[in-house]
Specification:
mainly beta; Rieske Iron-sulfur Protein; 4-stranded antiparallel sheet; binds FE2/S2 (inorganic) cluster
């Protein structure tokens, strides 16, 4: 496996507070979320079952709710579970916002 690379995924303005923005980067499906101005990135898969959060997820009050079974993740603590049935946190993916561009590192 090669070392992680930085991939541009769009202009910062494309990533709005409260939106779940899906991208595929080097074959990896991810979602990007802006929370309190900061960009966050996670795998586009619920930690409960292989369900796409870009399809079943919704952001409300700083939390990402997976409507497949109601699992809820806290976006202020890297996707920690705050409502089961999921047990594990979301899988974080490294990302950065630099000079008006958003990058995902995979
Ligand atoms: S697949 Fe997300 S809560 Fe079950």
């Amino acid at each position: 496996m090669g070392s992680p690379q930085r991939h541009a995924v769009g202009a910062a303005a494309e990533f709005l507070e409260g939106a779940i923005v899906p991208r595929t980067v080097s074959g990896v499906d991810v979602i990007l979320i802006r929370r309190l101005g900061q960009i966050q990135c996670y795998l586009d898969q619920c930690s409960h079952q292989p369900i796409k959060l870009s399809e079943f997820g919704e952001i409300t009050a700083g939390r990402l709710v997976c409507h497949a079974h109601g699992g809820t993740f806290d976006l202020d603590s890297k996707g920690r579970v705050v409502c089961d049935p999921p047990v594990d946190a979301l899988t974080s993916v490294e990302c950065a916002e630099v000079s008006g561009q958003v990058f995902v590192i995979v």
